[in-house]
Amino acid sequence: MKxxxxxxxxxxxxxxxxxxxxxxxxxxxxxxAANALKHINLENEEDVLNALKITLAKSKEAAQMLARSFRMxxxxxxxxxxxxxxxxxxxxxxxxxxMGEASRGVDQFVFRDDRARKMRRRSWFSYSPSDVISxxxxxxxxxxxxxxxxxxxxxxxxxxxxxxxxxxxRDKHGEIDIWKSIRASYSTFGEILEFVKxxxxxxxxxxxxxxxxxxxxxxxxxxxxxIMHTLCRYHHNxxxxxxxxxxxxxxxxxxxxxxxxxxxxxxxxxxxxxxGTKIGKCLTLFLKRYCGxxxxxxxxxxxxxxxxxxxxxxxxxxxxxxxxMAGRVVWLNPYxxxxxxxxx
Length: 344
Known about the structure:
This protein is α/β, with parallel strands linked by helices. It folds into three domains: 4-125, no CATH class; 143-161 and 205-332, Rossmann fold; 166-203, no CATH class. The protein contains twelve helices and nine strands. It has a five-stranded mixed sheet with strand order 7-6-5-8-9. It has a two-stranded antiparallel ribbon with strand order 1-2.
C-alpha cells in the first residue's frame, strides 16, 4: 500500500495536468481526490483514473482531458517524465516546483534524478488537514456595477418576500375593507352586494447570506463582493457570513464602509479566504451561535459550489434544522449551469 505522501502526490499531479490545459482545480478538489484515492487499489489504473475524474473533472471535456494526460502523471517518487515531455532546456525539477501552486502545507521529500544519479532535497507542497490562513485582495465594485446589482436585488427581494408591508391586496380570505366595499357599491347605486376583503401585501423579508469563500469559489470572489456590499449597505434586515473551514460575520464591515474600505477590511480580517470547505461544520456553528437571527420571516441564501470536505452528516442535519427555522432556504450554486456538472 502506498504512503499518504504518494497518494497526495498523484492527486496534486493530476490537478496540475488539468491546470496546464486551462481547467481550474482548487485545493478543496485536490483534497477530495486524495481522500478518494485512500479507499481504492492504486495498482488498478482504471480505478485511479475514475476517482480522479469524479473529484477533479467538472465537465465531460475535463474528464477526457484527464484521461488523455493520465499516462503522464507520475505515480511514484522515482518515476519522472521522459525527456520528450518537457520543453527543450527544462529540467525534471520544473514539474515538482509547479506543485506549489496546487495546494498548501509543506513537507520534505528526496527526489531522485535517475539520469543524473544524484539525490536532491526539494520542498513538496501537498494537502494539509490543518486550517489555512489566507487573505485575498479583491477589486472594489464600480458605481455602475453597484447600480445594476441593486436593481437585481430589489427584484429578488420582492420574489423572496415573507413579511407584510404597508400596502394591501385583495384576498377572499382577508379582512373586510369597508371603504373599498362602499366605493365598489357606486356601480349598484349605493347597494353593497359583496364585501371587499383585503390583506397586507408581502413586500419585505429578512435576508441572511452564507457565502463560501473557499479555494473552489475563488474565481467568483469579485462577484460575491458586489452582492455582499450592495445587500448590506443599501438594504435593511440583512446579515452576511463568510465561511470556508471557519465562520466569520462580516455584516458590520460591509454595512458601514465604502467599496474601497470594504476591500481593505476584508483583506485584514477575513483570513480564511481560499482555504478548504467544511460546510456542515460552519452551518452547525452558525445555528449554535446565531440561531436568534433566523425565524419564519427570514430567507437564508447559501452561495456555495457544494464541495464539502467535512462530515456529510453534519451538513444534512444542519440543513434540516435550518429549513425548520427559516421561512425559506435558497442554495445558489455557480456551477449549476455548467454543462456536465453534477454535485457528488
